[in-house]
Amino acid sequence: MNTLPNIALATPEIFMFSMALVILLVDAFISSQQRIITYFLTQATLVVALIISIKNFSEPAAMVFNDMYIHDTMASILKIAIYVIVFLVFLYSRDYLKSRNMYRGEYFVLGLFGVVGMMIMVSAASMLTIYMGLELMSLSLYAMVAFQRDSSRATEAAMKYFVLGAMASGMLLYGMSMIYGVTASLDIATIRSVIASAGLDNMPLVFGLVFILVGLLFKLGAVPFHMWVPDVYHGAPTSVTMYISSAPKLAAFAIIMRLLVGGLEPLAASWQDMLIIISILSMTVGNVVAIAQTNIKRMLAYSAISHMGFFLLGIISVSANGYSSSMIYVLIYAVMSVGAFGVVLLLSRAGFESEELADFKGLNQRSPWYAFLMLILMFSMAGVPPTVGFYAKLMVIQAVVDADMVWLAIVAVLLAVIGAFYYLRIIKLMYFDDAKEGAAVIETSGDVKVLLSLNALAMLILIPWLGVITEFCRRAIADL
Amino acid sequence: MNFEQLLFFVFSGTLVFAATMVITIRNPVKAALFLVLAFFNAAALWLLLEAEFLAITLVLVYVGAVMVLFLFVVMMLDINLVKLREGFGEYLPIGGLVGVLLLMEMAIILSNDLFGLERMPEPAGHDAAYSNTRELGRLLYTFYVYPFEIAALILVVAIIAAISLTMRKRKTTKHQDPGEQIRVQAKDRLRIIKMPSERRP
User: Fold this and answer.
1) Distance CA B59, CA B40 (A)
2) Which of B105, B163, B165 sits opposite A146 (nearest CB)?
3) Are A136 and B150 inside 8 Å of each other by CB?
């Protein structure tokens, strides 16, 4: 009790959080013409945190802060992915923010605090820290959605997000309190051992599990808790939509792993059935309703819902192999999502939001390179073979087959085929339709162009490295 | 029934009564006052559990600060009660159903033998010199220091969000610039204008 904990393992969090406060102060003293300083400081913070996390990577797994913070391979991998993705998000949205009077210091500071929240969730080893991290991230996201405060659509989206998010947090807390009541511990490892020794047919435990599941699936946006997803994706400024659709999914994966798998795996027989229903519903509703959308942000929102259904397949298989395939899926999904929203973001310019599918008509004639990038991203989202999106789907379906649920695999494949329709429709609009009169050409600065190209081409370039990524994810799950 | 149990039933009975009044009474000011009563009774229950610090904090923070602010807001805003109650009958069935379900679930869980006195024995009382506040502080700053810091961070985010969403820089805002106030000289304040004297008509 009297020895100082080895807080060196938590340096990424401490650094990120201190820098967010420093940036907040620096931003107060610079004029709006020098806002680029804030931007560079933010990006530098993410890069330095990346270096620290890579340095900490090989440290053996350990607990800090009285077993509330855990450092392990999964936490390191997810944190590194979060930095990279948020770096890309800020980079792509720079010009968008400038043209919409949102290029303010608070935007970046809130973004960084959101990252701190995600890092806390990723490294949480106690129900208390999971909840605190979740609240920190959610609060930052609510504020970012409402950042365009003069837009009635954005404030409405923020309001919905806030009310439903608060309710989901309440559900999660209610469930946690029941689990705490039965196991008398907040510590996830202790909860697991208590449940394992107490036996399964315990009514309050199952009630707690249901409430926790509802809370988690709300945050994940799986059917039937998906109502907020399309409205928030549509109403929020596109740069914020890009943020919400990518990095928080990684954090959601982490808390599912920590809480459901790490703590409540002895109850797997109960949550497996619930997740099967939810996964099928998510894939069905997501893929079918997306076909009817004319707005690309709404379409990608439904696509996100269906992707969450696919991602749950790996968890459903309740095996180390399944968990690692879910991890690969969510990592690849986050990269795809950032890329796709990046193209949407670049198509819009001052006073004009390119949100309708019709805005993509004839993109090939106007900006062939970006049309090609979008083509790769859409192929990857649909899961067309030469892209990593295909391997991601293949691995989760493989995991389900290994768990002797062939019927579920068949349902998933059928729904993926239905889903391919609306991704391919965008490709058709870009390549085979004529552009509208006066449709704009994409113009952007060099760094955005290079990184967006890399981002999209990663869907092809990464294929030879898939073995390495899989190996890392396996190790992460084995370490758990 | 010993004296402590009697106190418990008095306080918890009043608490349930006050909480019911909060949501059924028509006048919002009275509802707020009933909420104050509910808080006081909850604080008394905490005192029975030897949690003095929580009891005092509840009264100081919620009654002293939050409810006073709330009363001010209620009194300042012109709230149309009829409009507020419009959807009441419409939402009653579904709301009532959810409420009954929750109540049943709570009953199932609490009637379970998991929470009986034999499973979780009553903790021994502390002597008079025991300080609840000191123990809480010790735990908060040592064992729970990590969540405590995160809570601080959440408050910072709340402040930043609230300010960035509501502050508007208006050109017409009247503000003071102390630097200029100090640098001011007599000639800035008083202007002497020479003008020819005029004869009285």
Assistant:
1) 6
2) B165
3) yes
Q: Which two three-digit tokens encode residue A35?
A: 């806002």
| A334 in Cβ contact with A267 (< 8 Å) | no
User: Among A306, A427, A429, A432, which residue's Cα sits nearest to residue A377?
Assistant: A427
Report the distance separating Cα A15 and Cα B153, nearest Å: 13
Contact in structure between A242 and A341 (CB atoms under 8 Å): yes
Structure tokens at A189: 């490892």
Residue A289 — pLDDT band, cuts 50, 70, 90?
A: very high
Q: Which residue blocks in A100-125 are alpha helix, DSSP H? A: 105-122
Rounded to the nearest 10 degrees, what angle do helices A228-235 and A296-316 cross at?
Answer: 140
Task: Search chain B and give the residue with CA nearest A120.
Answer: B150
Torsion of CA A269, A271, A272, A275, to 10 degrees: 170
Beta strands in A6-157 (DSSP E): 62-64, 69-71
pTM (2 decimals)? 0.89
Residue A145 CB burial class (10 angstroms; 0-12, 13-18, ≥19):
buried
How sure is the predictor about A42, in pLDDT bands with cuts at 50, 70 and 90? very high
Q: Which residues of B touch A110 (CB under 8 A)?
A: 157, 160-161, 164
Give A-chain residues touching B135 at CB under 8 angstroms: none
A49-A55-A58 Cα angle (round to 5): 130
The conformation of residue A150, written as its DSSP 8-state character, comes to: T
Interface confidence, given as ipTM, is: 0.89
Cβ distance B157 to A140 less than 8 Å, yes or no, reads yes
Q: Give the model's confidence band at B11: pLDDT under 50 very low, under 70 low, under 90 confident, else very high.
A: very high
Residues in A closer than 8 angstroms to B102, CB to CB, are none
- C-alpha–C-alpha distance, residues B135 and B145, integer Å: 14
Interchain contact, B142 vs A132, CB within 8 Å: no
Inter-chain touch B156–A116, beta carbons under 8 Å: no
Hey, are the CB atoms on B161 and A143 less than 8 Å from each other? Answer: yes
Q: What pLDDT does A1 receive?
A: 46
Among B144, B158, B163, select the one facing A139 at the smallest CB separation.
Answer: B158
What is the distance between the alpha carbons of residues A391 and A473, in angstroms, rounded to a whole number?
14
The total number of structural domains that make up chain A: 1
Chain B CB contacts of A1 under 8 Å are 142-143
Shortest CA gap A127–chain B (Å): 11
Check A203 against B161: CB less than 8 A apart. Answer: no
Q: With an 8 Å Cβ cutoff, is A157 touching chain B? A: no
Q: Find which of B101, B110, B140, B160 to mutate to test the A interface (most A CBs within 10 Å of its CB).
A: B160
Find out whether B22 and B34 touch, Cβ atoms under 8 Å.
yes
Instruction: Report how far residue B108's alpha carbon sits from residue A208's, in angstroms, rounded to the nearest whole number.
Output: 12
Enclosing domain of residue A296:
2-479
Q: Please tell me which of the candidates B115, B150, B151 has its beta carbon nearest to residue A181.
A: B115
Q: Would you give the distance in Å from CA A302 to the centre of its chain?
A: 14
**Cα-based distances in Å from A272 to A144, A195, A262, B32:** 34, 17, 14, 45
Q: What letter would DSSP give residue A435?
A: P
Q: Which of A442, A310, A313 is nearest to A370 (CA)?
A: A442
In angstroms, the separation between the Cα of residue A96 and the nearest Cα of chain B is: 19
Under 8 Å between Cβ of A188 and A263: yes
